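Posting for a labmate who doesn't have an account.
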Amino acid sequence: MVVSQATVKTHLNHVLAKLALEDRGALIAWAWRFGLVDNTER
């Protein structure tokens, strides 16, 4: 599957807008808060 960088940025911006977040850092914090990030090391 090939997805252009512009397509990824567009989808990321849509996710940020729907969650009312300002940037990727805020998205990571949101994911952590809602248990979507696994902090165990492999």
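Reply:
Got it, the structure tokens are right above this. DSSP finds two helices and no strands in the chain.
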